[in-house]
Amino acid sequence: MAPVRQHARMQAAESRTSSKVAEPLHDDEIHVWWLDYRREHGRAPLRALLAGYLGAVPETLAFVEGEHGRPSLAEPHGALAFNWSHSGDHALLAIARGIVPGIDLERLRPRPRAMDIARRYFCVEETEALAALGPQQRDDAFLSLWTAKEAVLKATGHGIAYGLDRLQFTVPPTPSRLLRLDGDDASAWQLQSLVPASGHVASLAWRGPARRIRLLTLAGAS
User: Fold this and answer.
1) Distance between CA 204 and CA 30 in Å, rounded?
2) Domain range spanning residue 192?
3) pLDDT tens, 18-38?
4) Nearest-angstrom CA–CA distance, 46 and 23
5) Alpha carbon distance 104, 161 (integer Å)
6) Under 8 Å between Cβ of 36 and 84
7) What is the CATH number of the domain that holds 115?
8) Helix 135-156 and helix 124-131, axial crossing angle in degrees, nearest 10
9) What is the pLDDT of residues 94-128, one digit of tens each?
């Protein structure tokens, strides 16, 4: 089966203030925002950014949840698709039209139980590839693989309850590629590894043609 294509065009990160987010989102783009996150703020940062694209008051935006809990915008704003992920004090928000993005963010840090988790939840080929790496390489590769799986499953709307072994990727240092996705054509999917900031790793996935990815930073995000 053909691997996922990785032809997304990427632009360097640009800084924006919340008053300047209402810029054109072209049909061939995905905007990925790096922003500060505080749990007590809930969805307020998400609402503010989405409202900027829609020219709406944040409080008027309503969300609906899919069968597996994935949030989306309620009508009349449903044509704007998004997904976000947070880790520690930061978050990534992917916004697009015409496709459903999935994104996952993790902090790079030691993972002493990486192999235990891989043996329990990943497919055999991935686990064997991880076991062949040195400890530092293994931790980084595990997180890259984890974010890739999360991103694709979030884009499908299933989430990890679908089964992490039901999709297979190449394992870093080989560039991450989707090799198998049960019930779907892996070659129809796009996958892009991201390094939004030092000490973090992320993956962005969507089903459909390649798109240009714009990395944007909300002013004030560290």
Assistant:
1) 10
2) 9-218
3) 445 656 899 999 999 999 999
4) 16
5) 15
6) no
7) 3.90.470.20
8) 150
9) 999 999 999 999 999 899 999 999 999 999 999 99
Residue 218 CA from chain centroid, whole number: 17
Flag whether 126 is in a domain: yes
Which of 99, 78, 73 minimizes the C-alpha distance to 189?
99
In a domain, 184, yes or no: yes
Rounded to whole angstroms, how far apart are CA atoms 11 and 129? 31
| 123's tokens | 């497919």
| 54 CB-contact burial (10 Å; exposed 0-12 / middle 13-18 / buried 19+) | middle
- d(C-alpha 95, C-alpha 101), whole Å: 7
- pTM (global) more than 0.85: yes
The amino acid present at 144, given as its one-letter code, is: S
